[in-house]
Write a structure and sequence with these properties.
7-stranded mixed beta sheet; 6-stranded mixed beta sheet; 18 strands
Length: 625
């Protein structure tokens, strides 16, 4: 029996000796490589935090002490040490979540897998403990990538304001989020890795503060003054100290004893402490270390020896976008690109290789990216901001007030739109078509196939006086779905002699709608299927077409509340069209993790379910007459 198999909870770690801890670390890495290779998941980040996680659970007493994980994709080791060692269905229906989950364990606190939130949680929990008189510790683990997010710095500002409130921040510094960490903070942490002279830095910082009325100027300088001369004069530990946060480190994050010693020291301090741990993403697995793109941040099911995928790969929506945006870049020198720490996942790697001076990775800072894009457009360029659909939620105010209000020609490309599946509740891109419906002047394209993605991306970047959005799901691109006719700006995908049902298909669910139409035809109901292509604004020909049918049904991979179905209903009402309408979309609930097809079936987005409910609605209408 391996040492890992004897661990049923954090208390079992306390009695292990140094040699046993080394063996446990080896057991965990071997387990992760074999288990994640079978299911897919976040491999590189977890290989990098093995010793760090062991040390955290030896020094602190979870769940009384709160150990919080930012983003949470690096929590697999934490799961193993808190009694969850069945990874056979990791990220699958009925199996372990790929992120912390309160339903799984009392040791898990934050389920939200959006980055840069952990310090806000830590600040609130520390305040709650102070009010309640709790002696428990709050420990926040945040990566250097997540530390680039504005929310993290807002929280640091508040944490530093209470210098006698204990709170421990562990910076897991592996120089990466998905890819290499970008920006002034990255330069700041890099300097911390290679320099010393702490006391000299602190004295220098105090001199500056005595001569400066506000802390903003030296703080700004420490973040952005990455020139060599400035580094020589100011050792960056001083930045955290000047804020009022004790700094410990850098510590070798793979030296378990050294991490323990630093954490024990931090535990004894009466105020906020930052422990800076240097780790290596993909540690212990040579293929991950050799992978320059993201050190196996996320892998699909694969052979752990050859790293070859277990299932043949098919072209993805992301790859189609990657090729087309690069082709557009060749034709138009004004087209530039932005990403929020996800150059590779959103398909901008090829564009960046071809046009390195026309792409910017702003770090985990979606709000900044949207506002910067507005300014780029004002400066005469056409920016394309590629981002996961769920993460655009974080920049809604900037989309409204910076981009749309100023009528800036910015194109937002939303990857992972709709049900994403295995990454769980907070990664589903199920809100974008709802929240964006209310943005004046904004236009939304929902392509149904690869050809439409290419065409509509070009249509989007041709708009220079309003924001545009192009959205697509996380799945392989299906076969082309040809149109049989064009009505206004809409594509007609199917026509029938009888006009019982008008089926409005939004985006990649077109094959589902066509299959639904076949089932309805088999029941004697004629069905017209249309793809609006642009779901905001809807084409003016939609209402007259709807009037010629007995019922309208809208199928969308988005929340039913405020989405395309809502927009179609409003369009029909405005036109005085009283045809009954049914909307098929995602209900107002946070979906469990599982395969995309399983989740679509669970929420009724299947041809059989849709056809059955439409048939039943028509039957009730006939009976009522």
């Amino acid at each position: 029996m391996s040492i890992l198999e004897t661990i049923r909870g954090p208390r079992d770690l306390k009695a292990l000796g140094e040699g046993e801890l080394d063996e446990l670390a080896e057991d965990i890495r071997e387990f992760l490589i074999q288990a994640v290779a079978r299911t897919g998941g976040h491999l590189g980040p977890n290989l990098g935090v093995v010793e760090l996680t062991i040390a955290l659970h030896r020094v602190f007493d979870s769940p009384v002490d709160r150990i919080l994980w930012d983003t949470g994709h690096q929590s697999y080791v934490h799961k193993l040490l808190t009694g969850r060692q069945d990874f056979s269905k990791l990220r699958g229906k009925g199996g372990l979540s790929g992120y912390p989950s309160r339903a799984e364990s009392e040791h898990d606190v934050i389920e939200n897998s959006h980055a840069s939130t952990v310090l806000g949680w830590a600040d609130g929990l520390a305040k709650a403990g102070e009010v309640r008189g709790s002696g428990a510790h709050v420990v926040a683990v945040i990566g250097d990538g997540a530390l680039t997010g504005g929310m993290a710095w807002e929280a640091l500002n508040n944490i530093a304001a209470a210098r006698d409130r204990p709170l421990i921040i562990v910076v897991n510094d592996n120089e990466r989020s998905y890819g290499p960490t970008i920006g002034g903070l990255a330069a700041h942490l890099a300097t911390l890795r290679i320099t010393d002279g702490y006391e000299r830095a602190l004295a220098w910082g105090k001199d500056v503060l005595r001569n400066t009325p506000v802390v903003g100027k030296p703080l700004y300088g420490s973040l952005h003054g990455a020139k060599k001369g400035f580094k020589d004069a100011f050792q960056p530990q001083g930045m955290f100290e000047d804020l009022g946060i004790k700094y410990l480190g850098p510590v070798d994050g793979h030296d378990e004893a050294a991490v323990e010693a630093a954490l024990h020291k931090a535990k004894r301090f009466s105020g906020p402490v930052l422990v800076h741990c240097l780790t290596e993403k993909g540690r212990g697995y040579p293929p991950a270390l050799r992978d320059e793109a993201d050190h196996f941040h996320t892998v699909g099911a694969m052979d752990p020896l050859t790293c070859e995928p277990l299932a043949p790969s098919r072209p993805s929506w992301t790859s189609v976008f990657a090729d087309e945006i690069t082709a557009i870049g060749e034709e138009r020198s004004d087209v530039v690109a932005l990403t929020a720490a996800m150059l590779h996942p959103v398909g901008l790697t090829k564009f960046a290789e071809r046009f390195p001076d026309r792409v910017w990775d702003v770090g985990i800072a979606e709000q900044h990216a949207a506002t910067s894009a507005a300014a780029l457009a004002t400066g005469g360029l056409h920016p394309v901001f590629a981002v996961y659909a769920t993460f655009l939620n974080r920049a809604l105010d900037q989309v409204l007030m910076d981009v749309a209000l100023h009528r800036c020609g910015v194109t937002f490309v939303l990857d992972r739109a709709g049900v994403t599946g295995s990454d769980g509740a907070s990664h589903n891109g199920m809100w974008d078509m709802s929240v964006l419906q209310m943005v004046p002047g904004l236009r939304i394209a929902a392509p149904r196939d690869a050809g439409q993605l290419r065409a509509q991306l070009r249509e989007a970047v041709a708009v220079d006086d309003a924001p545009t959005v192009v959205r697509f799901p996380k799945e392989p691109v299906g076969e082309p779905v040809p149109a049989v006719d064009r009505l206004g700006g809409m594509d007609v995908l199917r026509r029938s002699e009888k006009t019982d049902v008008l089926l409005v298909s939004a985006g990649a669910l077109a094959p589902v709608c066509l299959h639904t139409a076949e089932l309805l035809e088999a029941r004697g109901l004629g069905c017209t299927v249309v793809d609006p292509r642009w779901v905001k604004p809807l084409d003016e020909q939609l209402a007259p077409l709807a009037e010629r049918h007995r019922i309208v049904a809208v199928v969308e991979d988005n929340s039913r509340t405020g989405g395309v179905g809502w927009a179609v209903a409003q369009t029909l009402r405005d036109a005085g069209c009283d045809v009954p309408l049914r909307t098929f979309g995602i209900p107002e609930q946070f979906l469990a993790h599982g395969r995309r097809d399983e989740l679509l079936a669970d929420i009724g987005l299947t041809p059989v379910e849709i056809a059955g409910r439409i048939s039943a609605a028509l039957a009730r209408k006939e009976n009522a007459q």
